[in-house]
Write a structure and sequence with these properties.
With 368 residues, the chain is mostly helical. It has helices spanning 2-33, 58-64, 70-75, 82-98, 107-131, 133-136, 154-172, 177-184, 187-192, 196-199, 203-211, 214-223, 228-250, 254-260, 265-269, 273-294, 299-318, 324-332, 334-367. α13 (228-250) runs antiparallel to α16. It is globular. It is a multi-pass membrane protein.
Length: 368
Amino acid sequence: MLGVRGAAVARGLQVLTHSWRRDSRALALARACGAPLAGHWQPSAGPGPRRRRLSLSAAAVVNSAPRPLQPYLRLMRLDKPIGTWLLYLPCTWSIGLAAEPGCFPDWYMLSLFGTGAVLMRGAGCTINDMWDRDYDKKVIRTVNRPIAAGDISIFRSFIFLGGQLTLALGVLLCLNYYSIALGAASLLLVITYPLMKRITYWPQLALGLTFNWGALLGWSAVKGSCDPSVCLPLYFSGIMWTLIYDTIYAHQDKRDDALIGLKSTALRFHDNTKRWLSGFSVAMLGALSLVGVNSGQTAPYYTALAAVGAHLAHQIYTLDIHRPEDCWDKFTSNRTLGLIVLLGIVLGNLWKEKTDEAKKSKDSRIEN
């Protein structure tokens, strides 16, 4: 009897062992395939409502907007605010340089130009997408843009563009007459820039002329007119900066651009891109140094320029032009670079007050 029971127990253990091994192999296979495992929480796929994670990113804000509004917000690129930053930052540099020694930049002007940057960048993107709608359908990165995807018609795009330009005009009319005329002069660049990629391998230069107009406009809005000794080298430095970051950006689309016949500095420079970018960086830093000399900047400004030089060197040295995701990361890092320049201008301007006070106290001691 005991022998029969022992044999039964042994057979039971063999069955359990075989089952455990089979289940272990199935579990390992499931893990390799990325399947959810028992005991690991997974979001419910049931019909009930799913809670959205709270996010303050620009893309999340656009996605949470009313659905009929979303294509227009994407047309303005509000889900990708890096372009607005790159348009706005040269304005802030100019406004900061125009501030009185020892003072912060004019907050009213900064807010006006911030609003104008959002509107004009949106208008520029609308114009660009209207011109490029047939090309955008052939490029992987741009195929889902609202006009190319058919979410917004050309007629509605015109109406939307008119609304943006009208609001931007309202911002411009808050400035002095000199600045109104100067700002209006940039509209030709805004309209024609998107065509340059069909004509020349240097469309990034045309973008630089357009995007850095605020380097002229910011100073004139504060001072009433442009000072060529400060504004022109500042404008030139911004153009060099645009050649750097937009060449990096263009490397994302170089294969598609070559296939459909569009031109860019990325296609012009090829494997010599890093040499060209290094040259643009030297020119940018040289022009910013001249700005500092002509505007009487102080130690914090030149310290910031050293940090900008290090940022550019790291950006160019580590750039992999054959990896679109790395090009995007390097491109977006230029917001940090622009903020470093702004910080240097603000701190350098505040430092002027201390320097002036030290000179006055020294002169008074000499007189006594």
